[in-house]
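Attaching the record inline, Q. Sequence:
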Amino acid sequence: MKVGLGLAFINQSTGDVSSTTFAALCSAVVDALLGAAGLNHLRPEFGFLSPVDKIKQIELKLYYQGFSLVNMDCTIEGELNLKPGVVNDFARQIADLLFISPERFTVKSYWLEKMAGTARIQVIASIKKSDEI
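Structure, as predicted:
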């Protein structure tokens, strides 16, 4: 089994926090999956794609490299000014794009006063070669 880490930061003082949060979450997921698979050199290929297309492309790359996703764990540190349930909806959308059950993509959120105005998203991904038990 291999593990990768992805990080993203959100500055809540600019723009639409909802779309920014989704894009940041997707970016952290892509980084975690590329890192776990040892495919970080492919990151530039995703530069101009939409967040959804990035997720679709990384899923294909992992599939063709013989990897399957075991689990993803997301931690959000900082206050997000979003409606209740929005982040969990994002997680379900990403789980659907990765063809995994939503139970395998967990999301936790913590508010930290020292991070006022900024939130950090951390994603840890566990993958395995499809032939591993």
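The CA atoms of residues 91 and 129 lie 23 Å apart. The two ends are 9 Å apart (CA to CA).

More tomorrow.
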